[in-house]
Amino acid sequence: MLIKIAKPSDLHESDVTPESIYLSRRRFMGGMAGLGAGLALSGHARANADYSDVPDGNAPAWLKEKISDTQWRAITPSDPEKDKIAPFDDASGYNNFFEFGTDKGDPARYAGSLQTEPWSVVVDGEVNNGGRFALEDFAKPSQFEERIYRLRCVEAWSMVIPWLGIPLAEIIKRADPTSKAKYVRFETLVDPEQMRGQRSSFSIIDWPYVEGLRLDEAMHPLTIMAMGMYGRELPNQNGAPLRLVVPWKYGFKSIKSIVRISLVEEQPINSWQQIAADEYGFYANVNPNVDHPRWSQATERRLPNSLFSTNTIDTRMFNGYEDEVAELYAGMDLRKHY
Amino acid sequence: MATQRKWLVWRVAVFLAALAPLVFWSWQVANNAAGPEPGRYLLLNIGIGGLWMLLLTLSLTPLTKLTRWKGFALIRRQLGLWTLAYATLHMLSYALFILGLNWALLGSEIVKRPYIIVGMIALIGLSVLGATSNKWSMKRLGKRWKPLHKFSYLILSLVLLHFFWVVRADMSEWAMYAAIAALIMATRLPPFARSLPKLRYRLSRT
């Protein structure tokens, strides 16, 4: 019966539940699922059994332990037939991670040089409980959850990815923000020795890669800090060892290999906004009604596709998470705040 | 007779070399080695391949001046037509594999996206040059043939602009092609063009 509690919960369940109750219910479920996963390990088939063809990584022991304790299938797509999980090879072989090059295959080819252990994260800015934390201590107090999310790239393609991570809200609460904190600013590692893309003198990006969220976006229960995917730790090309995942925004918002999280008063200028403010805004919410100046955002190619079928589907408002997040933007002109 | 055969072998070899990348990319797609978006893989590779063809075609005249080797001039029309073939396949890949033959979308995309307009103009230009590359057209156009085909340099500029507008984050690849293009164009400027035979003379003496 315990396992039944942890069975796939539909996204739409939160439609009718006020956020505060939704959150507390989820926390309750998280606790129960911990028990459930413990039982599952001691005999039943593991909930991630369908990742049997995913190659094992080289996760440190503490991370393996956290992952084995995951609340599996905590959030799944409401239509799993339409939103089929992409093959691991595609999710880990077709990436935008310009720190390692601009070709979609470059990150998989060159991210092996990234040292992800040991890793530490600086939490600073408008917080009472800042400092430098080892990733292990950063992750330990929270229960890992598996979240199967649609990932919509600003380049008009999308994939469905099963992430493993913890709600960003828990991390922010632990940092204890002051009343001045209005935004969260994230920074990716800068290390040209390990990241060959940062050695290019023709790069348009002014390293480090920077992203940001409004505090209420960061606290939203759908926003997570991922440390794994497909039942294992993150491959380096997917942003190991720590990345953001904000499923209702274009993929570039979900910053990878994070070394710094700052609570700030002013709206941060994210890297793509700095490069081309007329093409990429701060919010970058998935929106089929606001085109990128160089291509349409009305549709997307769901990957993998084939030569015979582009697998083109209509892009949904907020990437299909409208019921959960639309209220964050009530009264805002999303054409202006793209 | 022997020299005739030699040139035939040379032209067939060039033909096979120009065909080889297309065969390789198709092979990759057929073997699921082209990633999760094989259409885009073909689109981008064929696009870059077409730029290579155009740069190679335009480098033949300066190479002839530099070396006086007859072989370069013999493959100029062939490589020009290969450029047109790659450009056409590039456009078809876009229509088939990216737009999925959604003609309404193609219509709206062409109007709204400047890089597509520029690419289409370049393709139309290449088609005109391809259509007038035969002996009959050369005879009909007479003196006007050469100035008409000098438009290939304008087309090269359009192709680079088209490429420039697609780049998202790193200009290094684009900059490399732009530098090669600038070098080729510079060799056609009169002062440089005159110095090429002198350079050949100097090289032949060392």
From TrEMBL, chain A:
Residues annotated as signal peptide: none
A Pfam family that the UniProt record links to this protein: Oxidored_molyb
Alphabetical list of SUPFAM superfamilies matching this protein: Oxidoreductase molybdopterin-binding domain
Keyword Cytoplasm: no
EC number annotated for this UniProt entry: 1.8.5.-
GO molecular function, one term: oxidoreductase activity
The organism's place on the tree of life at top rank: Bacteria
UniProt binding sites for Mo-molybdopterin: 95, 153, 188, 238, 243, 254-256
Cofactor(s) needed for function: Mo-molybdopterin
InterPro entries to which the protein is assigned, alphabetical: MsrP, OxRdtase_Mopterin-bd_dom, OxRdtase_Mopterin-bd_sf, TAT_signal
Ranges that cross the membrane: none
Reactions it catalyzes: L-methionyl-[protein] + a quinone + H2O = L-methionyl-(R)-S-oxide-[protein] + a quinol; L-methionyl-[protein] + a quinone + H2O = L-methionyl-(S)-S-oxide-[protein] + a quinol
This protein's record includes keyword Oxidoreductase: yes
HAMAP family assigned: MsrP
Function: Part of the MsrPQ system that repairs oxidized periplasmic proteins containing methionine sulfoxide residues (Met-O), using respiratory chain electrons. Thus protects these proteins from oxidative-stress damage caused by reactive species of oxygen and chlorine generated by the host defense mechanisms. MsrPQ is essential for the maintenance of envelope integrity under bleach stress, rescuing a wide series of structurally unrelated periplasmic proteins from methionine oxidation.
Quaternary context: Heterodimer of a catalytic subunit (MsrP) and a heme-binding subunit (MsrQ).
Alphabetical list of NCBIfam families matching this protein: PRK05363.1 (NF003767)
Name of the protein: Protein-methionine-sulfoxide reductase catalytic subunit MsrP
UniProtKB/TrEMBL annotation, chain B:
Function: Part of the MsrPQ system that repairs oxidized periplasmic proteins containing methionine sulfoxide residues (Met-O), using respiratory chain electrons. Thus protects these proteins from oxidative-stress damage caused by reactive species of oxygen and chlorine generated by the host defense mechanisms. MsrPQ is essential for the maintenance of envelope integrity under bleach stress, rescuing a wide series of structurally unrelated periplasmic proteins from methionine oxidation.
Family as reported in the entry's similarity comment: Belongs to the MsrQ family.
The protein, known as: Protein-methionine-sulfoxide reductase heme-binding subunit MsrQ
HAMAP family referenced in this protein's UniProt entry, alphabetically: MsrQ
Taxonomic source organism: Halomonas llamarensis
The protein's assembly and partners: Heterodimer of a catalytic subunit (MsrP) and a heme-binding subunit (MsrQ).
Membrane-spanning ranges: 7-27, 39-58, 79-101, 113-131, 151-168, 174-193
Source organism superkingdom: Bacteria
Lineage, opening ranks: Bacteria, Pseudomonadati, Pseudomonadota, Gammaproteobacteria, Oceanospirillales
Residues annotated as domain Ferric oxidoreductase: 51-158
Topological category with respect to the lipid bilayer: Multi-pass membrane protein
Entry note: cofactor: Binds 1 heme b (iron(II)-protoporphyrin IX) group per subunit.
Annotated Pfam families: Ferric_reduct
Cofactor(s) of this protein: heme b; FMN
Principal cellular location given in the protein's record: membrane
UniProtKB keywords: Cell membrane, Electron transport, Flavoprotein, FMN, Heme, Iron, Membrane, Metal-binding, Transmembrane, Transmembrane helix, Transport
Entry's localization field: Cell membrane; Membrane
